[in-house]
Design goal:
By secondary structure, the chain is an alpha/beta fold. The chain has eight helices and six strands.
Length: 216
């Protein structure tokens, strides 16, 4: 159970600056349980964005957004609506945002901050994708988390040791910063790399400190 809360509406609107048509995604799992991105919250966000002059291309609330296979099947039924959108706003924890970013060739905005795992982790079996930092930076990294997926947790680009797109610490895994650069280039958003990300304030995370033991 990933504990999340919605980002301030002002921050969300800054992400959507220049986007006229927006597709909304929520989750009936953790996000609905914590009232950050369930059916009710997605409907409320739709009204808030429309009041700001945005057009809602469509919306969907997936049973378990961090389940890649389930989400892929669900999003396929909204292919036309997603194609018509300038971007996608995801009202879930970081695991859900990254699920959507992996599946669609669109700009994906995070609408929530993830505070804690609540003692359990996401359904995505491949790897842990969210470390509950409390201040999600996926907006600036193409939907790929450098905190969870970079061995050095770097926030402002790759280290000098990565070679051939592989991690210096573990050459068996890809350098996530190379993946971030490639994705931002594909989306036409390389300018986001010019933004300086300050050191993380871990006091906003409920799980700062020793990591929670993962469930088997």
């Amino acid at each position: 159970m990933l504990i999340s809360e919605q980002k301030p509406i002002e921050e969300i609107l800054s992400y959507l600056d220049g986007d006229k048509n927006v597709f909304l995604v929520g989750c009936k799992g953790c996000a609905e349980g914590w009232k950050s991105g369930g059916e009710k919250q997605v409907a409320e966000m739709e009204r808030n964005l429309q009041a700001q002059g945005k057009t809602i291309a469509g919306s969907v609330v997936v049973d378990m957004l961090c389940d890649s296979a389930l989400t892929n099947l669900k999003l396929r039924t909204y292919k036309k609506e997603i194609a018509a959108a300038d971007s996608i706003l995801v009202l879930t924890d970081g695991a859900g945002v990254q699920t959507v970013a992996e599946l669609v060739n669109k700009v994906v905005h995070p609408g929530c901050n993830t505070l804690s795992s609540g003692g359990a982790h996401a359904e995505w079996k491949e790897a842990e994708r969210c470390l509950e930092c409390g201040d999600c930076v996926l907006e600036f990294t193409g939907g790929l988390c450098p905190i969870a997926r970079c061995s050095k947790h770097l926030l402002n680009g790759p280290c000098g040791g990565s070679q051939g797109g592989k991690c210096e610490v573990n050459p068996d895994i890809p350098c996530v910063w190379q993946q971030i650069i490639d994705r931002l280039a594909k989306l036409g958003q390389l300018d986001k790399l010019e933004r300086l990300v300050m050191p993380k304030n871990w006091s906003v995370s409920l799980t700062s400190g020793p990591p929670v033991k993962r469930l088997s």
